[in-house]
């Protein structure tokens, strides 16, 4: 199952690149996992935050979100470099929704209430690759900090 999804996500041939909305959400979840793992500390706080984001984005139950996160962890571990990974997501996610994707990534980065340089660098890379400029990424970060009650941490 996961091998088929990876093949569809990263196929060069456009006929082999047919993915459905569920596959696209797993790809986004894998990107959340990639950011969470960027600082080599991936713990329960970040895992629960990923599940909350997944549940919020698509109205999943707690169990469904946990299953999607577990699938995303396997996909992320097998996914090629971030450039190809984000290109795949960019091709399938509307620009308007990419702002929310960046906000979700910032939410993961601050899940443990600390600002990690590795996670921040990863988000900056991903934002650029997804076509989100630095200003919009900073606005997303500020919104997340305010929503999380961490306004003075940025």
Describe the model:
It is a single chain. With 154 residues, the protein is mainly alpha-helical. The chain has one domain: TerB-like. The protein is 72% helix and 0% strand. The chain contains eight helices and no strands. α6 runs antiparallel to α7. The radius of gyration is 15 Å and the shape is globular. The termini are far apart. The mean pLDDT is 85. InterPro entries: DjlA_N, TerB-like.
Notable traits:
154 residues; mainly alpha; TerB-like; 8 helices; DjlA_N; Co-chaperone DjlA N-terminal domain-containing protein
Write a brief structural summary:
This protein has 154 residues and is mainly alpha-helical.
SSE diagram, text form:
Elements: H1 2-10, H2 21-37, H3 44-58, H4 62-78, H5 82-92, H6 95-109, H7 117-129, H8 134-147
Helix pairs in contact: 1-4, 2-3, 2-4, 2-5, 2-6, 3-4, 3-6, 6-7, 6-8
Protein name: Co-chaperone DjlA N-terminal domain-containing protein
Pfam families: TerB
InterPro entries: DjlA_N, TerB-like
Tell me which CATH architecture applies here.
Orthogonal Bundle
What are the secondary-structure elements, in order, as H or E?
HHHHHHHH
Indicate the low-confidence ranges by residue numbers: none
Structural class by sheet pairing and helices: mainly alpha
The CATH class label is Mainly Alpha
What is the percent of helical residues? over 70%
**CATH superfamily name?**
TerB-like
Mean pLDDT: 85
Radius of gyration: 15 Å
For the record, the count of structural domains works out to: 1
Number of strands: 0
Distance between the termini: 40 Å
Protein name: Co-chaperone DjlA N-terminal domain-containing protein
Domain Co-chaperone DjlA N-terminal: 26-142
InterPro entries: DjlA_N (IPR007791), TerB-like (IPR029024)
């Amino acid at each position: 199952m996961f091998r088929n999804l990876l093949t569809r996500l990263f196929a060069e041939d456009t006929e082999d690149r047919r993915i459905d909305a569920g596959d696209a959400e797993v790809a986004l979840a894998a990107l959340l996992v990639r950011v969470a793992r960027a600082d080599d500390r991936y713990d329960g706080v970040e895992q629960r935050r990923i599940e909350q984001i997944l549940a919020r984005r698509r109205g999943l139950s707690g169990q469904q979100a946990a299953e999607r996160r577990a699938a995303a962890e396997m996909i992320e571990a097998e996914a090629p470099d971030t450039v190809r990974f984000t290109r795949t997501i960019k091709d399938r996610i509307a620009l308007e929704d990419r702002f929310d994707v960046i906000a979700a990534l910032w939410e993961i980065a601050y899940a443990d209430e600390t600002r990690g340089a590795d996670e921040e660098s990863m988000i900056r890379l991903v934002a650029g690759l997804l076509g989100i400029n630095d200003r919009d990424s900073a606005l997303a970060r500020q919104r997340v900090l305010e929503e999380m009650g961490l306004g003075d941490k940025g």
